[in-house]
Write a structure and sequence with these properties.
Mean pLDDT: 91
Radius of gyration: 34 Å
Largest sheet: 6 strands, mixed
Strand order of the largest sheet: 4-3-2-8-7-6
Number of domains: 3
Shape: elongated
Number of helices: 5
Structural class: alpha+beta
Strand content: over 45%
Distance between the termini: 85 Å
Length: about 325
């Protein structure tokens, strides 16, 4: 089939590509393209979804969603070139590809504008919105700084994964004597955080809810996730059943006498790690170790893991002294 204009081989609607492009376009874009950006966080609204994008990436996505292309035009590359300085102004949108095996380039000149609208996340954050409170507490002790550091790392990691969620934020943190309260915009994120903290630090979660309001006939609840960390910490000496143990991890202890692994289910704290007395083993056999401490020489039940010269801890329990190796 020949081109009705010049007689060359026709490839599109009875014309060759050159004659077709003199008369018609292969792609169509509106003269004005508008981007919506939040003035507070800088997110762009693309297809009804707020996204964390650079201006150029947001413009590229908007162009891709709005451009209309001839069905025979197989686009392989989209190039957007500014004609003016700054973000707002004129751009050439250049589409490069093939029409029935013939290389084709089609251009559109568009005016790009930016409209500012506060996104849902920033609006809710400014209004103190929250759906859940995560309370971090410890049984019979204060929460340690290293534990708080772990909690904050977990929160930051989960919020980063949920950054496209418009309710992924903390509206406030209340520091209480017994531990911090974190107010989350999304109850599901609050639930994820509480479970991950409990899994990592060996605690348990108590979940409760309270009716907040009714919207369109639906009950709207606010949730509280109380994370209870265990009474012990790594390095504390506890008794589990009848075994004296040093805590080696969350839910894990080592029996003082033979260093066998003990699962900590209902341990009772005998000595906090900062209360343990230090000493150096000056003599020992398979039953007894002599430990030089500030109190003098202490005769203690030995551990299989110590030898002369080792720096150890000593703890008194049931009128006996025990050598506690470092973990």
């Amino acid at each position: 089939m020949r081109c009705v204009i010049c007689g060359s081989e026709a490839v599109i609607e009875g014309m060759c590509l050159k004659c077709y492009q003199k008369r018609r376009k292969l792609s169509y874009l509106d003269d004005i393209i508008e981007l919506v950006r939040c003035p507070k966080c800088g997110y762009f609204k693309i297809g009804g979804v707020w996204k964390d994008l650079e201006f150029s990436s947001a413009l590229f996505e908007i162009v891709q969603s709005k451009v209309r292309v001839h069905p025979q035009f197989e686009v392989e590359e989209v190039d957007i070139e500014p004609l003016t300085s700054g973000e707002v102004g004129k751009y050439i949108v250049r589409l490069i590809g093939y029409v029935e095996g013939c290389r084709a380039v089609d251009e559109n000149v568009v005016n790009v504008r930016v409209r500012t609208i506060t996104c849902e996340r920033c609006s809710r954050f400014s209004g103190g919105y929250y759906e859940a409170i995560v309370q971090v507490r410890a049984d019979d002790r204060k929460i340690e700084e290293d534990e708080l550091k772990v909690v904050k790392e977990i929160i930051n990691r989960i919020l980063e994964k949920e950054k496209d969620n418009q309710k992924a934020f903390i509206s406030k943190v209340v520091e209480r004597k017994e531990g911090p309260d974190f107010y989350f915009g999304d109850k599901n994120i609050g639930r994820k955080v509480s479970r991950e903290v409990a899994r990592t630090l060996g605690g348990r979660v108590i979940e409760s809810r309270k009716l907040h309001t009714r919207i369109d006939g639906r009950d709207i609840y606010r949730y509280t996730f109380a994370v209870r960390l265990p009474c012990y910490r790594v390095g504390d000496v506890v008794v589990e059943g009848e075994k004296l143990c040093i805590v080696a991890g969350y839910g894990k202890g080592l029996a003082v006498e033979d260093l066998s692994v003990v699962n900590l289910k209902n341990p009772k704290v005998v000595k906090r790690r900062e209360e343990l007395e230090r000493g150096i083993v000056v003599n020992c056999d398979e039953f007894v170790a002599e430990v030089a401490s500030e109190k003098g020489i202490i005769q203690a039940v030995t551990s299989k893991a110590v030898s002369i010269g080792d720096e150890v801890f000593v703890v008194e329990y049931n009128s006996k002294y025990y050598v506690v190796p470092k973990v």
